[in-house]
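Worked example 2:
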Amino acid sequence: MKRLNLKELVIFIVFGFIINIVSSQTIKIPKNYKLFWNDEFNEEGSPNIEYWSYENGFVRNEELQWYKKENAFIENGLLVLEGKREGIKNENYIENSSNWRTNRKFANYSSASINTKNKISFKYGILEVSAKIDISKGMWPAIWTLGVNKKWPANGEIDLMEFYVHEGEQKILANAAWADEMMHPIWDSVKIPFNTFLEKDSNWANKFHIWKMDWTREYIKIYLDDILINEINLENTINSDGFNPFHQKHYILLNLAIGSNGGDPKNTIFPKKYEVDYVRIYQKK
């Protein structure tokens, strides 16, 4: 092993010191918190497999896209979830099937969905995500979490961000869901017309914005650019069996769905990109 001479050693120490200063300036840790986990997406290529797993194929909500690993990649310091218009053979096709996942011979769109299940999970703290969404017809980007125990919706769902068409109007949503006695979801949801944001800033969709969840044993507060958009009282989020799904660990999901609630993308020009600058979790010291 080569030994560093004095000059090389000084350069090495100074360089490391500078890197630490830059990192500490970039990540502004809230007072009385520590950084629990983060991904800054600075390594070109695929998302870090130590943190992220991929969904594949037709997954939920009778959406149009086929989820593919290749549609999630890191480029110029950003995680990109890319939606494409392309024909993909459904490897799970079954003739005369009544299941929407198996009765389509082809998918006409592809996209990506990644999550930290069985890799990174947390209970309470602050989750912060910087992202830029595409607002084209058909796009349904989301930042959300699911509880590690029980089936949906009894495991609990927290949506820091969803963007889709509701009652004929594009909206940004902040939600939480848990289960009733019939295993149907009970929603605490806020739906904000997207024009509300455009009226304040016509260039809003071309910028990165910060979605943040402040989660304690008592409440979940969801913020967009430091503005509180929903507060959920966790005294009320109890499943019929007495289990509170927001008093357990959750893992993170990032996805770009196409169609379904997002609307009909047939006249949309592809490809489309949902970009994420960073994901950070802070917990109290």
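Residues 57 and 66 are 5 Å apart (CA to CA). Residues 30-284 form a domain with the Jelly Rolls fold (CATH 2.60.120.200).
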